[in-house]
Each structure stands twice: as structure tokens, then as C-alpha cells.
From TrEMBL:
Keyword Signal: yes
Protein name as catalogued: PDZ domain-containing protein
InterPro entries tied to this protein: M28_fam, PDZ, PDZ_sf, Peptidase_M28
One annotated GO molecular function: metalloexopeptidase activity
TM spans (from-to): none
Domain of life: Bacteria
UniProt domain Peptidase M28: residue ranges: 110-308
Example GO BP: proteolysis
Keyword tags: Signal
Keyword flag Signal: yes
Signal peptide per UniProt: 1-25
Pfam family for this entry, one: Peptidase_M28
Segments forming domain PDZ: 350-419
Length: 420
């Protein structure tokens, strides 16, 4: 039997007290299981006011990054590149919505560790840890929330904590896995997947045998029905069966094929790497100062971390994971919007309209009376089938124009006059 170093040390110390047998039994049962109190500890710290909402480029971001580095070091993991776990990157944001010309440079930090099992394949397990700070970058869904701390407990201290816990589980696992694991904590996600883009650019140079990426973004609000969205299942033909096979008991999985979505797995999918994306769904506190740690379902998060552990192990044992493109993006350049509706689109595949996951206060959709849960079918005469045609329709509207917007509400068609 293989004994990990930490285990051996503990065992020796405790043998002196004559209770080694008891300790051994407990240890065997506990290892490889996600620990709820670890998740609670990480999330409580990351979503505390001390970190000021972890805005990319802020002091709070640095504090979080140092916390991760210390955790990874404690686990004996090696840095992804160089001697530090931190990977720096830069981008710029337009901070004034009325000024299209001036952009401000932002410096972000990914924190990335590697468990090198000398395997012939590498799997990335990631989550973003940045959030909205005091709404300096205008990503809040609450009007006039500048200056309020957006703690981001679900978005995405929850996914971050799961990655830290998985790093612990894999590095203390007694059976050696058939894959190397890269544990990646991204920053710059809220400004447009900036950190994950940086890692996705170099991953195949640093680890040419990278075969998969698993992303967790907002996994802290598992509801009573245990609904879990699993995205990216269309990016390899082996995935639909694999995710169902390891499904935790009582869970309802909503499978979404697309490799493109509102989070960091998209960056890897666009580099032809198959992906999975786990998400417990949106809620009223999304991107608001009220996304706090007391609203997290910690036992649910623990089950999800165990699920990812099983999936990441199973993926390491697969003979082949062929990559499949799930969508053809019509043009390389993203359409430029002059207007916005102020809603959160549902990214799930559909043909007969796009679900609205959230409505932002004081924006055109909300002002016209459109509600969360409505299904958007038309903007003017332009038909909305899913998120892609939605973006297309939106790009045709000019600021100041007024258009009838059609939605389905409880199966009934309703038309609202929206002033853009
Ligand atoms: Zn977010």
C-alpha cells in the first residue's frame, strides 16, 4: 500500500500515542472526499469584505492570489511556469460607457499549479476568482451600486474553492491518476474571459498533451431539486454518457451541448480542446452586492466537487476524447452593439426563442416590463431563436430607437414596446 508523505508523518506521530489503527481507519475513509469545512473556509475568506470584491488589478485580487499560492505550495504542487504560481496578463477596459475612445490598462493575475503524475495526458481544472470589486468596471446588475462591495460568493468563490479542494484531493490521492492536472484560478473573467484566454494561448505549447478542460463557475447555489447545468457535452461524443454515468444521486442534469458559453471554458473550446462547464444556475443576487457567503449551499458544493473528482479521474482513463465543434460562428468579428437590452441571456441550445435568465434594473427590458423567465422570440421583425440570433438582431438596433419586442410568458405571446 502506498502511503503519502503527510499521511505517514501523521501516522508516526499518532502511533506514539497508541491509536494508529483507529486513525488509519478514519484516514482511509476520508481521503479523496471533498471536505465541506474546507469549502466553507475558502468561500468565507474569499467573499469577505477584506477582499473588497476581488476586482482584477486590485489589492483584493492580490490578497486572493497570495492565498492560493500558499495553498498550492502547502500541497507540494509545482508552478505552471517559472518559480511562481502567478501568471501575469494585461488588457484594457473602457471605464466610461459614454466614451468609446479612452481605455484603461488593467494588470491581472492567474494562479496556476500543476500536479505532475508523469502521465501522457493533461487535464485542466479551472474556475475564475475575480469579481466586481466596488463595481469600478460597471458589470453590476444593481443600479447605483458603485462603492458597494460585490463579494461574489457564488460568482465565483464557489468554483474557486472547489478547484482548491480538488487540488488537495488529487495531490493526497493514494492511487496515482492516469493524467497530470493543471489547477487554474483565473482573473479577468468578468471583463471578458481575459485570464483564461492567456492560459489557453500557451497551454498546448507548455503541455502539448492537454486533452480536456473542466470549468466551474457559480456552483454554490444548488437548489432543492438539485438542478445542475452541465455545458460542453457536445464537444466530444464520449461526454453525454460519461456525465450521466457519474451523476450524483438525486441530481437533475440539464445538458447543454455548446462549447461556447458565458465563462472560461469557452477560451479552451476555441483552441479545439473538449470542455465541460458546471453551473448551479442564476439567481436574484447575480452580480449584486448581496451575493454573499451565507447564501451558499455548502453540502451541495461538496457533492459537486466529488462529481468533478470522479469525472476528472474517468477522463484520465479514457482511451480517446475526440474533439467536436458544436457551433459554427458565422463571422470572426463579434457584432458591435450600439444598444443593449439589459438582460442575462440563457445560453442553452434552443430553436424557439432565447430564455431570459435575469433582467437588469433600470435598463430597456426592465423599463418595458419584460421579466426574468420570459422567452424572447423577436426584436422588431428580427426573429430570435437562441443567443446567436439574439446578438445578430441586437446589432441591427440603433440607440434611441423604439421597437416592439415579443416574448413568450407561460406559453402566451406578449409584445412590449422597448425604448433602446
Ligand atoms: Zn460573474
Amino acid at each position: 500500500m502506498f502511503l503519502s508523505k503527510t499521511y505517514f508523518k501523521k501516522l508516526t506521530t499518532l502511533s506514539l500515542l497508541g491509536i494508529s489503527v483507529l486513525y488509519f481507519a478514519q484516514e482511509k475513509a476520508q481521503v479523496e472526499q471533498a471536505n465541506e469545512s474546507n469549502l466553507r473556509k475558502h468561500i468565507t475568506y474569499l467573499a469577505s469584505d477584506e477582499l473588497q470584491g476581488r476586482l482584477t488589478g486590485s489589492e483584493g485580487e492580490t490578497k486572493a492570489a497570495n492565498y492560493f499560492s500558499a495553498e498550492f505550495k502547502k500541497l507540494g504542487l509545482k508552478p505552471y511556469e517559472g518559480k511562481e504560481f502567478i501568471q501575469n496578463f494585461e488588457y484594457s477596459v473602457k471605464l466610461n460607457p459614454h466614451d468609446d475612445q479612452t481605455s484603461t490598462p488593467i494588470k491581472g493575475k492567474n494562479v496556476i499549479a500543476v500536479l505532475d503524475n508523469k502521465a501522457d495526458r493533461t487535464i485542466v481544472i479551472g474556475a475564475h476568482y475575480d469579481h466586481l470589486g466596488l463595481n469600478e468596471h460597471h458589470n453590476s446588475t444593481l443600479a447605483n451600486s458603485a462603492g458597494q462591495i460585490h463579494n461574489g460568493a457564488d460568482d465565483n468563490a464557489s468554483g474557486t474553492a472547489a478547484v482548491l479542494e480538488l487540488a488537495r484531493m488529487f495531490s493526497q490521492n493514494k492511487t496515482k491518476e492516469n493524467a497530470n492536472y493543471v489547477f487554474a484560478l483565473f482573473s479577468g473573467e468578468e471583463d471578458g474571459l481575459m485570464g483564461s484566454k492567456k492560459l489557453a494561448e500557451t497551454i498546448k505549447t507548455t503541455y502539448p498533451n492537454t486533452i480536456f478542460m473542466i470549468n466551474m463557475d457559480m456552483v454554490g447555489r444548488l437548489n432543492d431539486k438539485k438542478d445542475l447545468t452541465v455545458g460542453g457535452v457536445g464537444t466530444s461524443p464520449i461526454l453525454p454518457e460519461l456525465v450521466k454515468k457519474h451523476k450524483p444521486e438525486g441530481f437533475n442534469l440539464a445538458l447543454d451541448e455548446s462549447g461556447v458559453g458565458p465563462s472560461d471554458h469557452t477560451s479552451f473550446y476555441l483552441k479545439d480542446i473538449p470542455v465541460l462547464f458546471l453551473f448551479t444556475g442564476t439567481h436574484n443576487d447575480y452580480h449584486k452586492p448581496t451575493d454573499d457567503s451565507d447564501k451558499i449551499n455548502y453540502s451541495g458544493g461538496t457533492v459537486i466537487a466529488n462529481y468533478v473528482f470522479d469525472l476528472a479521474n474517468a477522463l484520465g482513463n479514457e482511451k480517446e476524447i475526440p474533439f467536436v465543434k458544436t457551433k459554427v460562428v458565422a463571422s470572426k468579428s463579434v457584432p458591435k452593439y450600439k444598444v443593449s437590452l439589459g438582460i442575462m441571456p440563457n445560453y442553452a441550445d434552443s430553436k424557439d426563442g432565447m430564455g431570459i435568465d435575469g433582467v437588469i434594473d433600470n435598463r430597456p427590458a426592465a423599463n418595458a416590463g419584460i421579466l426574468q423567465g420570459d422567452v424572447l422570440t423577436k426584436i422588431g421583425k428580427c426573429e430570435v431563436k437562441e443567443v446567436y440570433s439574439y446578438m445578430d438582431c441586437l446589432s441591427k438596433v440603433n440607440a434611441g430607437e423604439e421597437h416592439p419586442v415579443t416574448v413568450k410568458r407561460n406559453g402566451e405571446e406578449k409584445i412590449f414596446n422597448v425604448k433602446f
